[in-house]
Amino acid sequence: MAYWTDKVAVITGGSGGLGSALAGALAAAGARVVVSGRSIERLESVVAKLAQAGRKALAVAADVTRQADVDQLFRRTIDEFGRLDLLVNCVGRSTRGQVIEATPEEFVELMELNFISVVRCVRAAVPHLLKTGGHLVNVGSLAGKAASRYVGPYPATKFALAAYTQQLRLELSPQGLHVLLVSPGPIARDDAAARYAGQVAGLPEKAGKPGAGVKFRAVRPEKLSQAILRACQRRKPELVYPPSVRVLLVLGTLSPRLGDWLVRRLT
Question: Looking at 154, 164, 196, 241, which residue is catalytic?
Fold first, then answer.
């Protein structure tokens, strides 16, 4: 993808999963990549793997729930490369549990990570992205399109992210910034079974599986990464993945009763 040659990309949540897969895809396409996360050891492992393949990346440890860390992340990026062409907000965490049992404090904690951290990063990055006519990518979830059972506060945070992303698109697209919302199904992870240990007691057995037991195959991060890069090049407003789910989302919007039935059938 010659389009990405020498472009500068920042990926939050870049130490694993979709974030590290995106780092690899962008570096392979010729981009200069900054990976960010809380663990410098995991970030340096990502950078080392890219170096083995002859690719260069920069690791910047940052907790995106802290404004000072966010400011440092983008300051180091601009100091190192002098520009910014792409920000991918990939930080996020899902949960398990009945929503009625989730406390206000648990909602606040997850909203801070899944949504407010994105607001911080966007505000820091947009002045630089406007200069390059670049790309802002917010990674949401199908749970931000249709809520599901037994995932606690998670859908509420992703619905908020979807609304925020649409507002950004409406206000900033006329200024030349491409804004993309990515709404994927559950992403395949090696540690999927261990992620919800201690959260699934008293819930149906399948609640601990990817997507709380959603009845379609988990998305491979490498495949989704390529789809995101193509969507950026085409400056698409939204990417729902897998694409076949879009029909179900439309039906659920037209008829909430049908939408609830579909969610119960498919999870």
Answer: 154
CA–CA gap between residue 22 and residue 222 (Å, rounded)? 7
Q: Phi/psi class of residue 211: alpha, beta or left (left: φ > 0; alpha: ψ in -120 to 50)?
A: left
What stretches of the chain show up as alpha helix (H) in DSSP? 17-28, 40-52, 67-81, 104-111, 117-132, 154-172, 192-195, 221-233, 245-254, 256-266
- Other C-beta atoms lying within 10 Å of the C-beta of residue 72: 16
Tokens describing residue 181: 């919302």
How high is the mean pLDDT of the chain? 91
DSSP state of 70: H
Active site residue 241: no
Q: Does pLDDT of 63 surpass 70?
A: yes
If you search the block for the tokens 């540690």, which residue do you land on? 191
Residues 6+ apart with CB under 8 A from 123: none
Strand-pair partners of 86:
9, 135
pTM of structure: 0.91
Cα 53–chain centre separation? 25
Q: Are 6 and 30 in contact (CB under 8 A)?
A: yes
Q: For the domain covering 2-266, report its CATH number.
A: 3.40.50.720
Boundaries of every domain in the chain: 2-266
